[in-house]
Structure formats: structure tokens, C-alpha cells
Amino acid sequence: MLILSYQLTGPIVKSYWTVAIARGAMTETIVLLRSVTATSGNHGFLFYLKRV
Length: 52
Description:
The protein is an all-beta fold. The protein contains no helices and four strands.
């Protein structure tokens, strides 16, 4: 089972997404999605994926 919790660090903007993936512990994966817009600048969305 995967548990997904997320923290919004910026407004929700439909735009181009860049994905950076960093691995922590064996059962944890942190995925950082950052939207890059020319008008609004950078808005980050931090997702925590934990496997149980």
C-alpha cells in the first residue's frame, strides 16, 4: 500500500512541470514537482510517498 501526502508551497498553476526525484530511506521516496512559468515564476509542490 502507498500513502500519499502532499504539501503545497505555491498556487496551483497548469504549466510546464519539471520533476526531481530524491530517495531517502528504503521505504520512502520524495518526489519534488516544480512548475516553471514565465509569468508567475516558480511554484513548488512537494509530494511524500511512503510505502507501508
